[in-house]
Amino acid sequence: MPSIRPLADLNTHTGEILRICLQEEQPVFLTKNGHGKLVVMSQQYFEKMQAMTRLYAKLEEAEKAAEAGDKGFNLYLLS
C-alpha cells in the first residue's frame, strides 16, 4: 500500500519518511492541498526502477523484432 503524506511532513516527520523509504523500500508520495507534488524514494529503489525500465524496453524491442520475423540467432551455429 503506498504511503501518502502531506508535503509538510517532509519537515516535521523526516525520520519517519526516511524509515519508510529505507527500511520498507517503498516510495513516499507527498501532496500539497490534496494533489500529488513529489515522490521520495531511496536511491536503491530508484536504481531498481531504472533497471526494470531498461529491461522492459529491451523486452519490447525483442517482441517487435519477433513480430517482424526476426528469429534471432542460434548459439549452436556459432561453434
How would you describe this structure to a colleague?
- It is a single chain.
- With 79 residues, the protein is α+β, with helices and mostly antiparallel strands.
- 53% of the residues lie in helices and 19% in strands.
- The chain has four helices and three strands.
- A three-stranded mixed sheet has the order 1-2-3.
- A hairpin with a 2-residue loop joins strand 2 (28-32) and strand 3.
- The radius of gyration is 20 Å and the shape is elongated.
- The model has no long low-confidence stretch (mean pLDDT 91).
How would you summarize the topology of this molecule?
Elements: E1 3-6, H1 9-12, H2 14-22, E2 28-32, E3 35-40, H3 43-67, H4 75-78
Parallel strand pairs: 1-2
Antiparallel strand pairs: 2-3
Features:
about 80 residues; 3-stranded mixed sheet
Beta-strand residue fraction: 15-25%
Overall pLDDT score: 91
Structural class: alpha+beta
Please, how many helices?
4
Q: Terminal Cα separation, in Å?
A: 50 Å
Which series of helices and strands comes N to C? EHHEEHH
Cα-atom radius of gyration: 20 Å
Shape: elongated
Task: Please list the strands of the largest sheet in the order they lie side by side.
Answer: 1-2-3
What's the helical proportion of residues? 40-55%
How many β-strands, per DSSP? 3
* Main β sheet profile: 3 strands, mixed
Uncertain stretches of 5 or more adjacent residues: none
